[in-house]
């Protein structure tokens, strides 16, 4: 919480900096999520071409798990759905943050400086 004796313009500038930092973090996380989803979809395409009873190995956390390719395929398809839902939520937060940035810059005539 900011002290009450701080100039309102300084408070708005600080809020803008915090929002910009938050937007940058969302952008970075979104890129990571897209990359993970693309990699998982690539593995799914590979698993679709092998018999479902064939052995497959999957790293879950730090443990290597052996299971049939059909089971791995189902798990990875569910993972893509979860990643997609996470992307959707992160995109909504990112857009809300950028809209707030736009509103602050226009309403208070502020500018972001990139370093």
Describe the structure.
The chain has helices spanning 8-47, 69-107, and strands spanning 55-60, 63-68. With 115 residues, it is mainly alpha-helical. Helix 1 packs antiparallel against helix 2 (69-107). The radius of gyration is 22 Å and the shape is rod-shaped. The model has no long low-confidence stretch (mean pLDDT 91).
SSE order and pairing:
Elements: H1 8-47, E1 55-60, E2 63-68, H2 69-107
Antiparallel strand pairs: 1-2
Helix pairs in contact: 1-2
Task: Please give a handful of descriptors for the protein shown.
single chain; mainly alpha; 69% helix
Please tell me the overall pLDDT: 91
Number of strands: 2
Q: Runs with pLDDT <50, length 5+? A: none
> In DSSP terms, counting alpha (H) and pi (I) runs of 4 or more, how many helices?
2
Distance between the termini: 26 Å
Main beta sheet:
2 strands, antiparallel
What is the alpha-carbon Rg in Å?
22 Å
Output the helix-strand order: HEEH
Query: Overall 3D geometry?
Result: rod-shaped
| Secondary structure: helix percent | 55-70%
Q: Give the percentage of residues in beta strands.
A: 5-15%
Order the strands across the largest sheet as they lie in space: 1-2
- Structural class estimated from helices and strands: mainly alpha
